[in-house]
Amino acid sequence: DQQVKQNSPSLSVQEGRISILNCDYTNSMFDYFLWYKKYPAEGPTFLISISSIKDKNEDGRFTVFLNKSAKHLSLHIVPSQPGDSAVYFCAASAWGAGSYQLTFGKGTKLSVIP
Amino acid sequence: EAGVAQSPRYKIIEKRQSVAFWCNPISGHATLYWYQQILGQGPKLLIQFQNNGVVDDSQLPKDRFSAERLKGVDSTLKIQPAKLEDSAVYLCASSLDQLRTSSDTQYFGPGTRLTVL
After folding, report:
1. Alpha-carbon gap, residue A46 to A52, rounded angstroms
2. pLDDT for A58-84, tens place per residue?
3. DSSP structure string for B14-79
């Protein structure tokens, strides 16, 4: 049972344009959401997060939107740069088994074409 | 500030052999995690420590996997004996204190890529 879903395995975008990465979740107990970025042969790096009490969080070129009623969040990158090419993981946090724990999606591979 | 350190970076073994991975978390981080990431999947939590105690090991295959964090700092994950399906990247992460808040960010090490032949 996949509680965090990233339905697009890959996405290609032209440099300078907007990249939109989507994530859906099923567990209504998730109260915090994160995006991680992963380059080959490296561990995931924290990118941006959002609390369930907000609907938008912005950090430079990165904005995360949360639609709780639809159980959907998205990451917008504007403008996209070649260095943004990586795998992006959506993760959600909920209390379980004695602490808060993260559940990850399968990731979306973003390719920014120069 | 130094990040999460892991070694080795790569390991190739035959099935039924044993292997051990080491992790040194960010200084001062109470919570330490081991994740397994199979190709094409997201990281899956294997075990979570709070200081030197186990918080959750419900997804750890205990017949072959073991982990310890004896002094509440470094941790070791062991597989004995390894199976072909254990081929994956093993990620270690740490955070300040995941028992207190859901917004406690986890920081990941570079991972160990294990290939079982």
Report:
1. 18
2. 999 999 999 999 999 999 999 999 999
3. -TT--EEEEEE--TT--EEEEEEE-TTS--EEEEEEETTEEEE-TTS-TTTEEEE-TTSS-EEEEE
Q: Please answer yes or no on whether A34 and B105 come within 8 Å at the CB atom.
A: yes
* Rounded-to-integer distance, Cα B92 and Cα B4, Å: 7
Of B93, B107, B110, the CB nearest to A42: B110
**Residue B57 Rama label (left phi>0; alpha psi -120 to 50; beta):** alpha
Type of residue found at A26: T
Q: What is the pLDDT along chain B (117 residues), one digit of tens a residue?
A: 689 999 999 999 999 999 999 999 999 999 999 999 999 999 999 999 998 899 999 999 999 999 999 888 999 999 999 999 999 999 999 998 766 676 788 999 999 999 999
- The Cα of A83 is separated from the nearest Cα of chain B by a number of Å equal to 18
Round to the nearest angstrom and report the end-to-end CA distance of chain A: 38
Start-to-end Cα distance in chain B: 37
Nearest by CB to A97, from B58, B102, B106: name it.
B58
- CA dist., res. B81 & res. A109, Å (int): 33
Q: What is the pLDDT of residues A88-100, one digit of tens each?
A: 999 999 887 778 8
Using the beta-carbon criterion (under 8 Å), do B45 and A100 form an inter-chain contact? no
pLDDT given for residue A79 in this prediction: 97
Question: B69 and B4 in contact (C-beta within 8 Å)?
Answer: no
